[in-house]
Write a structure and sequence with these properties.
By secondary structure, this protein is of the alpha/beta class. It has seven helices and ten strands. The radius of gyration is 16 Å and the shape is globular. The chain starts with 8 loop residues before the first strand and ends with a helix.
């Protein structure tokens, strides 16, 4: 496979008929971080979404594409890497030389996991895994950026699994995902996510996604 110095693209194919505030906040965060990383961010197949939040159209750095990834990259499928929890091989820094596009499916935050990525796996994309623990979508993109652009091996990234977040002085909730750990030992999350979790904690995570 030829090496590439092309600008990286991160594509989330939203496979669920709904797109809630959790996902919208994650997508805004991904767009901001892609700008900082000199990368592209695309949300594909939004036609599958019943009500696409209007604020998504105003997010700087987010390209909304009506077509699915298999159509967008029909002539360059070998340059697309699907981040797939069921893949045999783990993502490595060399994959940044071999692929230009990194594709994420699902809602990656489904609990329990429903293997939504299988819808993309069946289209024949090459798969790579991000380790054994499920991540939120923004974490998965952030980790991928670190590996393929900053060339940090997957196992050298500091993680925190299933962090407990304090809702108030009497209540806390355990997040069922893996996050990157910041310098203070806290999970890296989109700005405003903690407030969203606190506001809607009584609804359960299914309503947030």
């Amino acid at each position: 496979m030829e090496q590439s110095n092309a600008k990286k693209s991160y594509v989330v194919e939203h496979l669920d008929p709904e797109l809630g505030p959790w996902s919208a906040l994650e997508y805004q965060t991904i767009a901001n971080e892609c700008i900082g990383a000199n990368a592209h961010f695309c949300l594909s197949s939004p036609s599958k979404i019943q009500d696409l939040p209007s604020e998504l159209h105003a997010i700087n750095g987010l390209v909304i594409e009506d077509r699915g990834a298999e159509c967008i990259y029909a002539d360059a499928k070998d340059r697309v890497c699907l981040l797939d929890p069921a893949a045999k091989d783990e993502l490595c820094p060399e994959d940044g030389d071999n692929f230009d596009v990194f594709l994420f499916g699902g809602i990656l935050g489904d609990q329990p996991p429903r293997d939504r990525t299988s819808e993309l796996r069946n289209k024949g994309f090459v798969g790579r895994r991000l380790g054994p623990v499920q991540m939120t979508t923004d974490t998965a993109v952030r980790v991928t950026m670190m590996v393929v652009q900053q060339k940090i091996p997957l196992q050298e990234i500091p993680y925190i699994d299933y962090p407990e977040l304090k809702i108030d002085e009497h209540e806390s909730t355990e997040m069922p995902f893996r996050y990157i750990k910041d310098k203070d030992g806290k999970p890296v999350m989109p700005e405003g996510m903690l407030d969203l979790i606190k506001k809607d904690s009584e609804k359960g995570f299914g309503d947030l996604l």
